[in-house]
């Protein structure tokens, strides 16, 4: 059920008795730039830890405890080229609580979003410094994970220097030096006043009552231009390659391909099945032939990003086997192009994808994530998904496989 609360501010209510908890997702969406991701992530951290009424994390935690242990937190995410700041809340529904807990949580959300700890046009100094330090540590720790590090290096090879997708949604350590308690205030004001806002409420709720409560959040109308998450780039004239040496025991070989298959376009379901056969499921060729039969990889997986036309392969290997693994991966792709897979393998992958889809309905966050995509893309409700997956033929898989173009290879090796 959809309500327009103001221009550029939409409320989406999903009544269901499936969950004992009520779930709220509020997203602030704008186009990502090379400069705004770090600032918006730091902003999210500040907003979730302090307000004027609750100036410390301890005070905020005590208030949440009073609300029957409700959860309210903030973070960032990305949908293709779009950057989102997301507030999530979950709490027992009013029928179980025996009180109007929904209204109390909305009041706390109001406090977090519209009464941050800002005085004299700057965020509280000690809180800002703590959160900036924490974010620096968090981002640094991510890159200590060599699998994550290798994937980011592959992305840097795949995307051109100027592409915003080179910048992770959580930002960069280098950008923190330019952020202050003063210049983060305009970032906050811009987000609250100008971003597209989508509010989702999932649970055993009355839509009209939800609308009345959420309408008390003082969102103003805003002129929101059309936002598209899709990103496309021309193929590189030659494959970009990089080998890096670090003291690692397990080498990382990551491959990046262009695959022009986009979310819910005519090839979308064929692309899902192709990826499942290539490396996206335990029934895939990479898992079966590279990892299991040849024993050349500790892991070998593929992932399709349907807003950017990117297909990535990640493997953990012995560095000495890098060329053999590269050749064997190429062989698996060639076999998919030629239709060299059995009807049984196709059916196993389709069943696996359908089971994943059905299982995702058991998690509220997955449901809300799909609702967010529907809202951003203005898509009708999903229908007959299992039928569409099952309708993919071997010829469809081969046709999609033939669209794949190698673009980048990255090897992180412990051997010189």
Secondary structure topology:
Blueprint: E1 2-6, E2 9-15, E3 21-31, H1 36-47, H2 57-66, E4 71-79, E5 82-92, H3 94-97, H4 101-114, E6 118-119, E7 122-123, H5 125-144, H6 146-158, H7 173-176, H8 184-194, E8 196-203, H9 207-214, E9 240-245, E10 251-258, H10 268-280, H11 285-293, E11 299-305, E12 310-317, H12 322-337, H13 343-360, H14 364-377, H15 385-390, H16 394-401, E13 405-413
Parallel strand pairs: 2-8, 9-13
Antiparallel strand pairs: 1-2, 3-5, 3-8, 4-5, 6-7, 10-12, 10-13, 11-12
Helix pairs in contact: 1-5, 1-8, 10-13, 10-16, 11-12, 12-16
Plain-language structure description:
This protein has 416 residues and is of the alpha+beta class. The chain folds into two domains: 2-214, Cytochrome Bc1 Complex, Chain A, domain 1 (2-Layer Sandwich), CATH 3.30.830; 240-413, Metalloenzyme, LuxS/M16 peptidase-like (Cytochrome Bc1 Complex, Chain A, domain 1). Helix content is 43%, strand content 22%. The chain has a six-stranded mixed sheet with strand order 1-2-8-3-5-4, with helices on both faces. Strands 9-13-10-12-11 form a five-stranded mixed sheet, sandwiched between helices. The protein is globular, with a radius of gyration of 23 Å.
What would a concise description of this structure say?
The chain is an alpha+beta fold. It has helices spanning 36-47, 57-66, 94-97, 101-114, 125-144, 146-158, 173-176, 184-194, 207-214, 268-280, 285-293, 322-337, 343-360, 364-377, 385-390, 394-401, and strands at residues 2-6, 9-15, 21-31, 71-79, 82-92, 118-119, 122-123, 196-203, 240-245, 251-258, 299-305, 310-317, 405-413. It has two domains: 2-214, Metalloenzyme, LuxS/M16 peptidase-like (Cytochrome Bc1 Complex, Chain A, domain 1), CATH 3.30.830; 240-413, Metalloenzyme, LuxS/M16 peptidase-like (Cytochrome Bc1 Complex, Chain A, domain 1, 2-Layer Sandwich).
């Amino acid at each position: 059920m959809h309500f327009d609360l103001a221009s550029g501010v939409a409320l989406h209510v999903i009544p269901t008795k499936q969950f004992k908890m009520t779930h709220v997702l509020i997203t602030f969406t704008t186009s990502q730039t090379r400069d705004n991701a770090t600032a918006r992530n730091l902003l999210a951290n500040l907003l979730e830890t302090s307000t004027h009424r609750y100036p410390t994390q301890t005070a905020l935690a005590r208030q949440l405890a009073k609300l029957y242990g409700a959860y309210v937190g903030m973070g960032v995410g990305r949908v293709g080229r779009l950057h989102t700041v997301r507030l999530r809340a979950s709490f027992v529904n009013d029928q179980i609580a025996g009180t109007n807990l929904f209204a109390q949580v909305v009041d706390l959300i109001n406090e977090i979003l519209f009464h941050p700890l800002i005085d004299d046009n700057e965020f509280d100094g000690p809180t800002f410094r703590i959160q900036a330090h924490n974010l620096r540590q968090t981002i640094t720790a991510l890159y200590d994970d060599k699998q994550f590090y290798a994937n980011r290096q592959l992305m840097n090879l795949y995307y051109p220097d100027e592409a915003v997708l080179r910048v992770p949604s959580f930002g960069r350590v280098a950008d923190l030096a330019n952020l202050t308690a003063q210049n983060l205030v305009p970032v906050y004001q811009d987000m609250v006043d100008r971003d597209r806002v989508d509010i989702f409420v999932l649970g055993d709720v009355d839509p009209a009552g939800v609308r009345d409560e959420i309408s008390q959040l003082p969102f103003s109308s805003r002129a929101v231009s059309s936002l598209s998450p899709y990103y496309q780039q021309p193929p590189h004239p030659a494959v970009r390659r990089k080998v890096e040496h670090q003291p690692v025991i397990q080498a990382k070989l990551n491959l990046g391909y262009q695959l022009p298959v986009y979310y819910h376009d005519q090839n979308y379901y064929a692309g899902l099945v192709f990826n499942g056969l290539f490396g996206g499921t335990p029934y895939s060729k990479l898992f079966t032939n590279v990892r299991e039969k040849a024993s050349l990889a500790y892991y070998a997986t593929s992932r399709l990003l349907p807003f950017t036309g990117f297909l990535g392969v990640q493997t953990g290997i012995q560095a000495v086997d890098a060329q053999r693994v590269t050749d064997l991966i190429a062989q698996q792709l060639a076999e998919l192009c030629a239709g060299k897979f059995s009807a049984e393998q196709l059916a196993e992958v389709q069943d696996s994808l359908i089971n994943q889809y059905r299982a995702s309905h058991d998690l509220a966050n997955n449901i809300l994530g799909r609702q967010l995509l529907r809202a951003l893309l203005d898509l009708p409700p999903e229908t007959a998904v299992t039928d569409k997956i099952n309708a993919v033929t071997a010829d469809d898989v081969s046709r999609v496989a033939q669209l794949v173009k190698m673009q980048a290879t990255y090897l992180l090796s412990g051997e010189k």
